[in-house]
Amino acid sequence: MLIPYEALLQLPQDTFNNLIKEYLLTQVEDGSFGMLDDQQLATAIEKCKQSLKQGELKVEFSEEDESIAIRHKDHIIYPTAEQD
């Protein structure tokens, strides 16, 4: 299930930022995420928020394992109606 951007704005700011930080961690394979200073991290979070607002990134909740994750719109598999 996709979470609308407007619903994300209802989250406490820290929760929203932590969700984005977790996404950013998954995007850095070489471990350099820890090397970012506070300003660079704030810039990365704002860019991610902008991408969420523009629909490039989506927040997906998995009912199966009760997890939530940010994914690029091209990496989301949309369910299709089964035909007989």
Structure description:
- By secondary structure, the protein is α+β, with helices and mostly antiparallel strands.
- It is built from three helices and three strands.
- A three-stranded antiparallel beta sheet has the order 1-2-3.
- A hairpin with a 4-residue loop joins strand 2 and strand 3 (67-72).
- The model has no long low-confidence stretch (mean pLDDT 85).
Structural class: alpha+beta
- Helical content stands at 40-55%
What integer value in Å does the Rg equal? 14 Å
Shape, per Cα inertia axes: globular
Quick overview of this protein structure:
The protein is an alpha+beta fold and 84 residues long. 43% of the residues lie in helices and 17% in strands.
List keywords for this structure.
84 residues, alpha+beta, 3 helices, 43% helix
Topology of helices and strands:
Blueprint: E1 2-3, H1 5-8, H2 13-27, H3 38-54, E2 57-62, E3 67-72
Antiparallel strand pairs: 1-2, 2-3
